[in-house]
Amino acid sequence: MKSPLHRRPAVKPDPGLKPVALSAEEIAFVRSLVIYQDPHIVALNKPSGLSSQGGRGQVHTLDELLWAFAKPGKARPRLIHRLDRDTSGVILTARTKPAAGFLGKAMMARKFSKTYQAIVTPGAPDPAEGVIDQALRRDEVGREAYMRTCPPDHPDAETAVSRYRTLATAPGAALMELSPETGRMHQLRVHLASIGRPIAGDARYGGALAVSGHAVPRLMLHAGALEFPHPSGGFKRITAPPPADMAELIAALGLKV
Hints:
This protein has a domain at 116-221: Pseudouridine synthase. By secondary structure, the chain is an alpha+beta fold. It is globular and about 55 Å long. 17% of the residues lie in helices and 31% in strands. Strands 1, 2, 3, 4, 5, 6, 9, 10, 13 and 14 form a 10-stranded mixed sheet that branches. The protein has helices at 24-32, 62-65, 97-108, 187-194, 244-253; strands spanning 34-37, 41-46, 78-79, 88-94, 113-120, 129-133, 136-141, 144-149, 161-170, 173-180, 210-211, 214-215, 221-229, 235-239. It is built from 5 helices and 14 strands.
């Protein structure tokens, strides 16, 4: 079995990478995502639909948009971790190489804590609060990558552990709080699907595209809080409320906390 990692670290940027030319609209857009910044870090509230890195389309990824924060002749901030393209929420970057090294080591030492919110169907899991300890393996299908549950002794098995608790219930749905203890690709999505509670809007892993007559516009998964050691000392907690489309669906389904 592969050794467990607390989070998937972002791909290390190529130090020789040339700056990306951004439009005024792109610069304004990425700057509007900032929810916290200081000399060491920049935290953003990533919208659903924006790739963190490695997108195949013509639209710039968040990693490329970070050139909007670079000073002349200097490198852009570095992503410390990633979020799936369709997941919204808090994402952290480091302004300097020392800050990136410090935060990377802290993440590998399991000193980062992420909290997500998700809408699942067809209702709350039983028990309503618990731990999913289920190994995962990567499965390539054409150009697409999936994660599958597997026995822990599978040659490609990766340890994966997720904590969950039910925040609210309504007919056909539940609002969940999720805390991954490891950082596998699609971990929360596959873990919830494995217990029969896929995340609404997650077509890849069996999520419903409509709940109680309400259309689900996208994957209903949001990284609402991130707590981590700050390079200047102490711990920092950064939060971001769910985006409007998710908040509206929560209200429409009556999932009040």
